[in-house]
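Hey,

The postdoc asked me to send both predictions to you directly instead of through the lab channel. I've kept everything plain text so nothing gets mangled by the mail client. Protein one:
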Amino acid sequence: MKLLEGKVALVTGASKGIGRSIALKYAEQGAAVAFTYLSSVEKGQALEDELKAQGVNAKGYRSNAADYAAAEELINAVVADFGKLDILVNNAGITRDNLLMRMNEQMWDEVINTNLKSCFNTVKAATRTFMKQKSGSIINMTSVVGLKGNAGQANYAASKAGIIGFTKSVALELGSRNIRSNAIAPGFIETEMTEVLDEKTVQSWRDAIPLKRGGRPEDIADCAVFLGSDMSAYITGQVLQVDGGMLT
Protein backbone atom coordinates (compact mmCIF):
# COMPACT_ATOMS: atom_id res chain seq x y z
CA MET A 1 0.00 0.00 0.00
CA LYS A 2 1.22 3.49 -0.83
CA LEU A 3 2.02 5.75 2.12
CA LEU A 4 -0.59 8.41 1.28
CA GLU A 5 -3.29 6.19 -0.18
CA GLY A 6 -6.72 7.75 0.31
CA LYS A 7 -5.42 11.07 1.58
CA VAL A 8 -6.11 14.53 0.12
CA ALA A 9 -3.24 17.00 0.20
CA LEU A 10 -3.00 20.72 -0.53
CA VAL A 11 0.42 22.12 -1.48
CA THR A 12 0.79 25.88 -1.83
CA GLY A 13 3.27 27.36 -4.28
CA ALA A 14 3.63 24.14 -6.26
CA SER A 15 4.22 25.30 -9.82
CA LYS A 16 7.99 24.81 -9.56
CA GLY A 17 10.90 23.79 -7.35
CA ILE A 18 10.26 22.15 -4.00
CA GLY A 19 6.47 22.58 -4.16
CA ARG A 20 6.25 20.86 -7.53
CA SER A 21 8.40 18.00 -6.29
CA ILE A 22 6.17 17.55 -3.24
CA ALA A 23 3.03 17.49 -5.39
CA LEU A 24 4.53 14.86 -7.70
CA LYS A 25 5.84 12.74 -4.81
CA TYR A 26 2.49 12.91 -3.02
CA ALA A 27 0.74 11.73 -6.17
CA GLU A 28 3.26 8.91 -6.52
CA GLN A 29 2.41 7.82 -2.97
CA GLY A 30 -1.33 7.68 -3.67
CA ALA A 31 -2.64 11.08 -2.56
CA ALA A 32 -5.17 13.22 -4.37
CA VAL A 33 -3.39 16.52 -4.90
CA ALA A 34 -4.68 20.07 -4.78
CA PHE A 35 -2.10 22.79 -5.28
CA THR A 36 -1.77 26.51 -5.78
CA TYR A 37 0.18 28.82 -8.01
CA LEU A 38 0.05 32.57 -8.54
CA SER A 39 2.26 34.10 -11.22
CA SER A 40 3.40 30.90 -12.96
CA VAL A 41 0.09 30.16 -14.66
CA GLU A 42 1.51 28.05 -17.51
CA LYS A 43 3.61 25.95 -15.13
CA GLY A 44 0.63 25.48 -12.84
CA GLN A 45 -1.53 24.23 -15.69
CA ALA A 46 1.28 22.00 -16.91
CA LEU A 47 1.55 20.37 -13.48
CA GLU A 48 -2.19 19.72 -13.34
CA ASP A 49 -2.08 18.17 -16.82
CA GLU A 50 0.91 16.03 -15.87
CA LEU A 51 -0.78 14.70 -12.73
CA LYS A 52 -4.07 14.00 -14.47
CA ALA A 53 -2.24 12.18 -17.28
CA GLN A 54 -0.95 9.81 -14.60
CA GLY A 55 -4.51 9.14 -13.45
CA VAL A 56 -4.19 11.27 -10.34
CA ASN A 57 -7.13 13.19 -8.91
CA ALA A 58 -5.55 16.65 -9.07
CA LYS A 59 -6.52 20.27 -9.42
CA GLY A 60 -4.57 23.53 -9.47
CA TYR A 61 -5.94 26.77 -8.03
CA ARG A 62 -4.64 30.22 -8.80
CA SER A 63 -4.61 31.76 -5.35
CA ASN A 64 -2.64 34.25 -3.29
CA ALA A 65 -1.85 32.62 0.05
CA ALA A 66 -0.88 36.01 1.50
CA ASP A 67 -4.52 37.12 1.22
CA TYR A 68 -6.68 35.80 4.08
CA ALA A 69 -9.98 35.91 2.18
CA ALA A 70 -8.37 34.12 -0.78
CA ALA A 71 -6.94 31.44 1.54
CA GLU A 72 -10.33 30.86 3.13
CA GLU A 73 -11.93 30.60 -0.30
CA LEU A 74 -9.20 28.17 -1.36
CA ILE A 75 -9.70 25.80 1.59
CA ASN A 76 -13.47 25.82 1.07
CA ALA A 77 -13.00 25.05 -2.63
CA VAL A 78 -10.59 22.18 -1.96
CA VAL A 79 -12.93 20.56 0.57
CA ALA A 80 -15.87 21.00 -1.82
CA ASP A 81 -13.94 19.55 -4.78
CA PHE A 82 -12.18 16.69 -2.98
CA GLY A 83 -14.55 15.97 -0.08
CA LYS A 84 -11.96 16.45 2.67
CA LEU A 85 -8.44 17.66 3.44
CA ASP A 86 -5.86 15.54 5.25
CA ILE A 87 -2.52 17.28 4.62
CA LEU A 88 -1.72 20.96 4.30
CA VAL A 89 1.74 21.89 3.04
CA ASN A 90 2.55 25.60 3.32
CA ASN A 91 5.31 25.96 0.76
CA ALA A 92 4.56 29.33 -0.87
CA GLY A 93 7.43 31.72 -0.37
CA ILE A 94 9.51 34.51 -1.89
CA THR A 95 12.77 36.36 -1.28
CA ARG A 96 13.47 40.06 -1.51
CA ASP A 97 17.10 40.11 -0.40
CA ASN A 98 19.03 43.21 0.56
CA LEU A 99 21.14 44.52 3.41
CA LEU A 100 19.02 46.01 6.19
CA MET A 101 20.26 49.54 5.45
CA ARG A 102 18.99 49.22 1.88
CA MET A 103 15.84 47.20 2.59
CA ASN A 104 12.64 49.19 2.21
CA GLU A 105 9.32 48.61 3.93
CA GLN A 106 7.76 47.02 0.85
CA MET A 107 10.52 44.40 0.65
CA TRP A 108 9.95 43.57 4.31
CA ASP A 109 6.16 43.42 4.08
CA GLU A 110 6.06 41.32 0.90
CA VAL A 111 8.26 38.62 2.41
CA ILE A 112 6.51 38.56 5.80
CA ASN A 113 3.07 38.42 4.19
CA THR A 114 3.90 35.78 1.58
CA ASN A 115 6.03 33.54 3.77
CA LEU A 116 4.64 33.92 7.29
CA LYS A 117 1.15 35.41 7.13
CA SER A 118 0.23 32.86 4.47
CA CYS A 119 0.79 30.07 7.03
CA PHE A 120 -1.62 31.75 9.44
CA ASN A 121 -4.14 32.25 6.64
CA THR A 122 -4.28 28.67 5.40
CA VAL A 123 -3.97 26.97 8.79
CA LYS A 124 -6.65 29.20 10.28
CA ALA A 125 -8.93 28.45 7.33
CA ALA A 126 -8.29 24.69 7.49
CA THR A 127 -8.59 24.28 11.26
CA ARG A 128 -12.36 23.86 11.26
CA THR A 129 -12.14 21.04 8.72
CA PHE A 130 -9.31 19.33 10.60
CA MET A 131 -11.14 19.60 13.92
CA LYS A 132 -14.33 18.17 12.46
CA GLN A 133 -12.34 15.23 11.07
CA LYS A 134 -10.28 14.95 14.29
CA SER A 135 -7.20 14.52 12.12
CA GLY A 136 -4.83 16.47 9.95
CA SER A 137 -1.15 17.02 9.22
CA ILE A 138 0.17 20.55 8.80
CA ILE A 139 3.62 20.92 7.26
CA ASN A 140 5.13 24.40 7.15
CA MET A 141 8.23 25.11 5.07
CA THR A 142 10.79 27.06 7.06
CA SER A 143 14.55 27.24 6.36
CA VAL A 144 17.93 26.84 8.03
CA VAL A 145 18.08 30.62 7.59
CA GLY A 146 15.27 30.84 10.12
CA LEU A 147 17.48 28.97 12.57
CA LYS A 148 20.76 30.80 12.06
CA GLY A 149 20.01 34.04 10.20
CA ASN A 150 21.79 35.28 7.10
CA ALA A 151 23.26 38.62 6.11
CA GLY A 152 21.12 40.32 3.49
CA GLN A 153 18.06 38.27 4.41
CA ALA A 154 16.70 39.87 7.58
CA ASN A 155 13.15 39.79 6.16
CA TYR A 156 13.43 36.18 4.96
CA ALA A 157 15.08 34.98 8.19
CA ALA A 158 12.41 36.70 10.29
CA SER A 159 9.61 35.12 8.26
CA LYS A 160 11.13 31.65 8.52
CA ALA A 161 11.90 31.98 12.23
CA GLY A 162 8.31 33.12 12.73
CA ILE A 163 7.08 29.98 10.98
CA ILE A 164 8.92 27.87 13.55
CA GLY A 165 7.23 29.61 16.47
CA PHE A 166 3.88 29.42 14.72
CA THR A 167 4.32 25.70 13.97
CA LYS A 168 5.12 24.84 17.58
CA SER A 169 2.23 26.92 18.94
CA VAL A 170 -0.25 25.26 16.57
CA ALA A 171 1.06 21.83 17.64
CA LEU A 172 0.31 22.70 21.27
CA GLU A 173 -3.14 24.10 20.52
CA LEU A 174 -4.41 21.37 18.19
CA GLY A 175 -2.63 18.23 19.36
CA SER A 176 -5.56 17.11 21.52
CA ARG A 177 -7.67 16.93 18.35
CA ASN A 178 -5.15 14.63 16.64
CA ILE A 179 -3.95 17.46 14.40
CA ARG A 180 -0.19 17.50 13.92
CA SER A 181 1.93 20.52 13.04
CA ASN A 182 5.55 20.21 11.93
CA ALA A 183 8.06 22.21 9.92
CA ILE A 184 10.75 21.30 7.41
CA ALA A 185 13.93 23.39 7.34
CA PRO A 186 15.69 22.90 3.99
CA GLY A 187 19.34 23.80 3.64
CA PHE A 188 20.99 24.58 0.31
CA ILE A 189 18.61 23.03 -2.23
CA GLU A 190 19.53 23.20 -5.89
CA THR A 191 16.47 24.51 -7.73
CA GLU A 192 15.70 27.02 -10.46
CA MET A 193 16.47 29.78 -7.94
CA THR A 194 20.07 28.58 -7.50
CA GLU A 195 20.72 28.18 -11.23
CA VAL A 196 21.41 31.92 -11.49
CA LEU A 197 24.40 31.59 -9.14
CA ASP A 198 27.86 31.10 -10.61
CA GLU A 199 29.38 27.64 -10.28
CA LYS A 200 32.14 28.82 -7.95
CA THR A 201 29.56 30.10 -5.44
CA VAL A 202 27.53 26.90 -5.67
CA GLN A 203 30.61 24.76 -5.16
CA SER A 204 31.61 26.76 -2.09
CA TRP A 205 28.20 25.92 -0.60
CA ARG A 206 28.64 22.25 -1.41
CA ASP A 207 32.09 22.16 0.15
CA ALA A 208 30.73 23.56 3.41
CA ILE A 209 28.11 20.80 3.70
CA PRO A 210 29.15 17.56 5.45
CA LEU A 211 27.46 15.43 2.76
CA LYS A 212 29.36 17.48 0.14
CA ARG A 213 26.40 18.14 -2.13
CA GLY A 214 23.45 20.43 -2.43
CA GLY A 215 20.06 19.02 -1.68
CA ARG A 216 17.51 18.06 -4.31
CA PRO A 217 13.84 19.06 -4.23
CA GLU A 218 13.13 15.33 -3.95
CA ASP A 219 14.99 15.25 -0.63
CA ILE A 220 12.48 17.72 0.79
CA ALA A 221 9.56 15.93 -0.85
CA ASP A 222 10.54 12.62 0.77
CA CYS A 223 10.49 14.32 4.17
CA ALA A 224 7.09 15.84 3.39
CA VAL A 225 5.76 12.38 2.52
CA PHE A 226 6.94 11.07 5.89
CA LEU A 227 5.37 13.94 7.84
CA GLY A 228 2.14 13.68 5.88
CA SER A 229 1.85 9.92 6.35
CA ASP A 230 0.78 7.82 9.32
CA MET A 231 4.42 6.81 9.78
CA SER A 232 4.86 10.09 11.67
CA ALA A 233 1.64 9.75 13.68
CA TYR A 234 3.41 10.49 16.98
CA ILE A 235 5.46 13.44 15.73
CA THR A 236 4.29 17.01 16.18
CA GLY A 237 5.81 20.38 17.01
CA GLN A 238 9.11 19.46 15.39
CA VAL A 239 11.46 21.17 12.94
CA LEU A 240 13.13 18.62 10.71
CA GLN A 241 16.34 19.94 9.19
CA VAL A 242 16.99 18.58 5.70
CA ASP A 243 20.32 20.24 5.12
CA GLY A 244 22.99 17.59 4.62
CA GLY A 245 24.39 18.42 8.05
CA MET A 246 24.91 22.12 7.27
CA LEU A 247 23.96 23.26 10.79
CA THR A 248 25.43 20.29 12.62
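Protein two:
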Amino acid sequence: MARSKEFEESAVLDKAMRLFWEQGYEKTSMNDLVEHMGIHRRSLYDTFGDKHTLFLKALDRYGDKNSAPLVRGMKSSKTAAEALQFLFGLTIRGEEDLPSGCLMVNSAVELAARDADVDTKSTEAFTTAEQLLKEIILWGQRDGEFTSEYDAGELAEYLHNVWVGLRVMARTSIAKDKEKLNRITDISMKLLEK
Protein backbone atom coordinates (compact mmCIF):
# COMPACT_ATOMS: atom_id res chain seq x y z
CA MET A 1 0.00 0.00 0.00
CA ALA A 2 1.34 3.44 -0.97
CA ARG A 3 2.14 5.82 1.85
CA SER A 4 0.03 8.96 1.98
CA LYS A 5 1.74 12.32 1.92
CA GLU A 6 2.33 13.80 5.33
CA PHE A 7 2.49 17.39 4.08
CA GLU A 8 0.50 19.95 2.16
CA GLU A 9 2.18 20.52 -1.22
CA SER A 10 1.38 24.23 -1.46
CA ALA A 11 2.69 24.87 2.08
CA VAL A 12 6.05 23.19 1.45
CA LEU A 13 6.28 24.80 -1.99
CA ASP A 14 5.82 28.18 -0.28
CA LYS A 15 8.75 27.29 2.00
CA ALA A 16 10.94 26.42 -0.98
CA MET A 17 9.87 29.62 -2.76
CA ARG A 18 10.85 31.70 0.25
CA LEU A 19 14.23 29.99 0.58
CA PHE A 20 15.02 30.52 -3.10
CA TRP A 21 13.87 34.14 -2.71
CA GLU A 22 16.16 34.70 0.28
CA GLN A 23 19.24 32.86 -1.00
CA GLY A 24 18.93 32.56 -4.76
CA TYR A 25 19.08 29.36 -6.78
CA GLU A 26 22.83 28.71 -6.70
CA LYS A 27 23.26 29.20 -2.93
CA THR A 28 20.33 26.93 -2.08
CA SER A 29 21.37 23.30 -1.72
CA MET A 30 19.13 20.24 -1.68
CA ASN A 31 20.04 19.84 2.01
CA ASP A 32 18.86 23.41 2.64
CA LEU A 33 15.60 22.65 0.87
CA VAL A 34 14.96 19.37 2.71
CA GLU A 35 15.63 21.06 6.06
CA HIS A 36 13.66 24.23 5.32
CA MET A 37 10.70 22.44 3.73
CA GLY A 38 10.54 19.91 6.55
CA ILE A 39 10.11 16.90 4.27
CA HIS A 40 12.23 13.88 3.41
CA ARG A 41 14.54 14.05 0.42
CA ARG A 42 12.67 11.18 -1.25
CA SER A 43 9.35 13.02 -0.80
CA LEU A 44 10.87 16.14 -2.31
CA TYR A 45 12.03 14.24 -5.40
CA ASP A 46 8.79 12.26 -5.71
CA THR A 47 6.59 15.34 -5.41
CA PHE A 48 8.60 18.12 -7.04
CA GLY A 49 11.33 16.44 -9.08
CA ASP A 50 14.88 17.77 -9.02
CA LYS A 51 16.07 21.14 -7.69
CA HIS A 52 15.62 22.87 -11.03
CA THR A 53 12.05 21.62 -11.47
CA LEU A 54 11.26 22.65 -7.88
CA PHE A 55 12.72 26.10 -8.59
CA LEU A 56 10.53 26.53 -11.69
CA LYS A 57 7.47 25.50 -9.65
CA ALA A 58 8.50 28.02 -6.98
CA LEU A 59 8.68 30.75 -9.65
CA ASP A 60 5.18 29.82 -10.83
CA ARG A 61 3.92 29.88 -7.24
CA TYR A 62 5.51 33.29 -6.73
CA GLY A 63 3.80 34.63 -9.84
CA ASP A 64 0.43 33.24 -8.76
CA LYS A 65 0.68 34.61 -5.23
CA ASN A 66 1.90 38.08 -6.23
CA SER A 67 -0.19 38.91 -9.27
CA ALA A 68 -3.54 38.87 -7.43
CA PRO A 69 -2.64 41.59 -4.86
CA LEU A 70 -1.24 43.81 -7.63
CA VAL A 71 -4.38 43.51 -9.74
CA ARG A 72 -6.59 44.02 -6.66
CA GLY A 73 -4.63 47.12 -5.69
CA MET A 74 -4.92 48.50 -9.18
CA LYS A 75 -8.66 47.83 -9.39
CA SER A 76 -9.33 49.41 -6.01
CA SER A 77 -7.53 52.60 -7.03
CA LYS A 78 -9.74 55.55 -7.97
CA THR A 79 -7.26 57.05 -10.44
CA ALA A 80 -4.49 55.79 -12.68
CA ALA A 81 -1.94 57.82 -10.72
CA GLU A 82 -3.14 56.18 -7.51
CA ALA A 83 -2.75 52.74 -9.12
CA LEU A 84 0.85 53.49 -10.13
CA GLN A 85 1.63 54.92 -6.69
CA PHE A 86 0.24 51.69 -5.21
CA LEU A 87 2.54 49.53 -7.37
CA PHE A 88 5.64 51.59 -6.69
CA GLY A 89 4.76 52.04 -3.02
CA LEU A 90 4.36 48.31 -2.49
CA THR A 91 7.84 47.79 -3.92
CA ILE A 92 9.39 50.52 -1.79
CA ARG A 93 7.65 49.52 1.44
CA GLY A 94 8.09 45.81 0.95
CA GLU A 95 6.46 43.39 3.31
CA GLU A 96 7.95 42.97 6.76
CA ASP A 97 7.65 39.19 6.82
CA LEU A 98 8.85 38.63 3.23
CA PRO A 99 12.35 38.70 1.74
CA SER A 100 13.33 41.93 0.04
CA GLY A 101 13.20 42.49 -3.67
CA CYS A 102 11.38 40.30 -6.18
CA LEU A 103 12.02 36.60 -6.72
CA MET A 104 11.37 36.93 -10.46
CA VAL A 105 13.77 39.86 -10.91
CA ASN A 106 16.39 38.21 -8.68
CA SER A 107 16.12 34.99 -10.69
CA ALA A 108 16.33 36.79 -14.02
CA VAL A 109 19.51 38.55 -12.90
CA GLU A 110 21.02 35.36 -11.50
CA LEU A 111 20.04 32.83 -14.17
CA ALA A 112 18.24 34.07 -17.29
CA ALA A 113 21.42 34.45 -19.35
CA ARG A 114 22.21 30.74 -18.99
CA ASP A 115 18.89 29.05 -18.18
CA ALA A 116 16.30 29.06 -20.97
CA ASP A 117 13.46 28.05 -18.63
CA VAL A 118 14.13 30.92 -16.23
CA ASP A 119 14.56 33.29 -19.17
CA THR A 120 11.15 32.23 -20.53
CA LYS A 121 9.42 32.60 -17.16
CA SER A 122 10.98 35.98 -16.41
CA THR A 123 10.24 37.27 -19.92
CA GLU A 124 6.60 36.20 -19.55
CA ALA A 125 6.37 37.86 -16.14
CA PHE A 126 7.95 41.06 -17.45
CA THR A 127 5.60 41.10 -20.45
CA THR A 128 2.61 40.72 -18.10
CA ALA A 129 3.92 43.54 -15.89
CA GLU A 130 4.36 45.83 -18.90
CA GLN A 131 0.82 45.03 -20.02
CA LEU A 132 -0.50 45.93 -16.56
CA LEU A 133 1.42 49.21 -16.68
CA LYS A 134 0.14 49.91 -20.20
CA GLU A 135 -3.45 49.45 -19.01
CA ILE A 136 -2.86 51.91 -16.17
CA ILE A 137 -1.26 54.43 -18.53
CA LEU A 138 -4.10 54.12 -21.06
CA TRP A 139 -6.55 54.69 -18.21
CA GLY A 140 -4.63 57.82 -17.19
CA GLN A 141 -4.47 59.05 -20.78
CA ARG A 142 -8.22 58.50 -21.26
CA ASP A 143 -9.00 60.41 -18.06
CA GLY A 144 -6.58 63.23 -18.87
CA GLU A 145 -4.23 62.48 -15.97
CA PHE A 146 -1.28 61.45 -18.14
CA THR A 147 0.24 62.89 -21.24
CA SER A 148 -0.77 61.44 -24.58
CA GLU A 149 2.40 62.80 -26.16
CA TYR A 150 3.96 59.34 -25.88
CA ASP A 151 2.69 55.90 -26.80
CA ALA A 152 1.27 54.03 -23.79
CA GLY A 153 3.28 50.91 -24.67
CA GLU A 154 6.54 52.84 -24.75
CA LEU A 155 5.74 54.55 -21.45
CA ALA A 156 4.95 51.13 -19.99
CA GLU A 157 8.37 49.85 -21.10
CA TYR A 158 10.01 52.83 -19.43
CA LEU A 159 8.02 52.49 -16.19
CA HIS A 160 8.67 48.76 -16.09
CA ASN A 161 12.39 49.50 -16.23
CA VAL A 162 11.95 51.88 -13.28
CA TRP A 163 9.91 49.28 -11.39
CA VAL A 164 12.51 46.54 -11.99
CA GLY A 165 15.22 48.95 -10.86
CA LEU A 166 13.33 49.65 -7.64
CA ARG A 167 12.99 45.90 -7.02
CA VAL A 168 16.74 45.43 -7.53
CA MET A 169 17.52 48.35 -5.23
CA ALA A 170 15.22 46.84 -2.60
CA ARG A 171 17.78 44.01 -2.23
CA THR A 172 20.55 46.46 -1.33
CA SER A 173 21.27 48.82 1.54
CA ILE A 174 19.80 51.59 -0.65
CA ALA A 175 16.39 50.19 0.34
CA LYS A 176 16.80 51.91 3.71
CA ASP A 177 16.86 55.26 1.91
CA LYS A 178 13.10 55.45 1.29
CA GLU A 179 13.41 59.14 0.39
CA LYS A 180 15.67 58.30 -2.55
CA LEU A 181 13.32 55.56 -3.78
CA ASN A 182 10.34 57.88 -3.40
CA ARG A 183 12.17 60.60 -5.38
CA ILE A 184 12.71 58.11 -8.22
CA THR A 185 9.00 57.29 -8.16
CA ASP A 186 7.99 60.95 -7.98
CA ILE A 187 10.12 61.89 -11.01
CA SER A 188 8.69 58.98 -12.97
CA MET A 189 5.17 60.09 -12.10
CA LYS A 190 5.96 63.70 -13.13
CA LEU A 191 7.10 62.47 -16.56
CA LEU A 192 3.58 61.12 -17.08
CA GLU A 193 1.79 64.34 -16.15
CA LYS A 194 -0.14 66.15 -18.81
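Summary for protein two, as requested: The mean pLDDT is 92.

Thanks,
C.
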